TrEMBL record:
Residues 13-163 form the Isochorismatase-like domain. It comes from Rhizobium ruizarguesonis. This is Hydrolase. The lineage of its organism: Bacteria, Pseudomonadati, Pseudomonadota, Alphaproteobacteria, Hyphomicrobiales. Coiled coil: none annotated. Keywords: Hydrolase.
C-alpha cells in the first residue's frame, strides 16, 4: 500500500512573509481582519504542532512596520529576518534559515501575493521543494491580481490550501491527545461556524 499523501508534523516548515501592517493596508483581495485572524490561526497551528517557522519582513523601519503584534505575540521566540529583496529566496540569510530546518516541504503565508509570496514559492518549486500556499492567509492588492498569482503558483506545481485544512490534516484524529487541546482551541477561536459548533458541543452536549 502506498503512503497516504497527507501532511505529517515532521514534514513541513512554515514561511511567514511580510505580515506587516504597512503592507496589510494595501490588501484589497479580502477582509483584512479575517486575513489577520487566518494568519494568527496559522501561527498557532505551527506552534501547536511544533513546526519550524521562518519569519521575514521587509522595509520594517521605513514603511511596512514590524510583524503585526497579533502574530508576533503567538511566537515571541521567532525573530524576523529583515530583507531588501522582494524574493525571500534571493536573500542569503532567509534562504539559509529555510535550509537549516532540513525540511523540503514548505507552507507559505504572507503579503503581498503578487510578489513577496509568489516569487519565493516559484523559486522554491524550481529547486525541488514541495510547496503549499495557505491561500486564505495571503493577501493581494486586488482580488484579480491575488487570484492570478495563486493560479500562476498552482500552474508551477504549488498546492493551494487553507489554514484550517492544514490544521485538520496535521491533527486528523481527535484522539491525538498531545495536540487535541491546542488544535480544538484554534478551531474554536478562528474557524467561524465550525468553531462555534465545537464550542457548543463541548458546553451543551453531555453523554447520557
Amino acid at each position: 500500500m502506498s503512503a497516504i499523501p497527507l501532511l505529517e508534523p515532521a514534514q513541513p516548515a512554515v514561511l511567514m512573509i511580510d505580515q506587516q501592517a504597512g503592507l496589510a493596508f494595501g490588501v484589497g483581495s479580502t477582509d483584512r481582519q479575517v486575513l489577520l485572524s487566518n494568519m494568527v490561526a496559522l501561527a498557532k497551528t505551527a506552534k501547536a504542532f511544533k513546526l519550524p517557522v521562518i519569519a521575514s519582513t521587509s522595509a520594517s523601519k521605513v514603511y511596512s512596520g514590524p510583524m503585526m503584534p497579533a502574530i508576533q505575540s503567538v511566537m515571541p521566540e521567532v525573530a524576523s529576518i529583515e530583507r531588501r529583496n522582494m524574493n525571500l529566496w534571493e536573500d542569503d540569510a532567509a534562504k539559509a534559515a529555510v535550509a537549516r530546518t532540513g525540511r523540503k516541504t514548505l507552507l507559505v503565508s504572507g503579503l503581498l501575493t503578487e510578489a513577496c509570496v509568489s516569487f519565493p514559492v516559484l523559486s522554491a518549486l524550481a529547486e525541488g521543494y514541495a510547496v503549499s500556499v495557505i491561500a486564505d492567509a495571503c493577501g493581494g492588492v486586488t482580488s484579480d491580481s491575488h487570484n492570478l498569482a495563486l493560479r500562476r503558483m498552482e500552474a508551477a506545481g504549488a498546492t493551494m490550501t487553507s489554514w484550517l485544512q492544514v490544521l485538520l490534516e496535521l491533527q486528523r484524529d481527535w484522539t491525538r491527545k498531545e495536540t487535541y487541546i491546542d488544535a480544538r482551541a484554534i478551531v474554536e477561536a478562528h474557524a467561524g461556524g465550525y468553531g462555534i459548533g465545537l464550542s457548543y458541543a463541548r458546553d451543551m452536549i453531555h453523554p447520557l
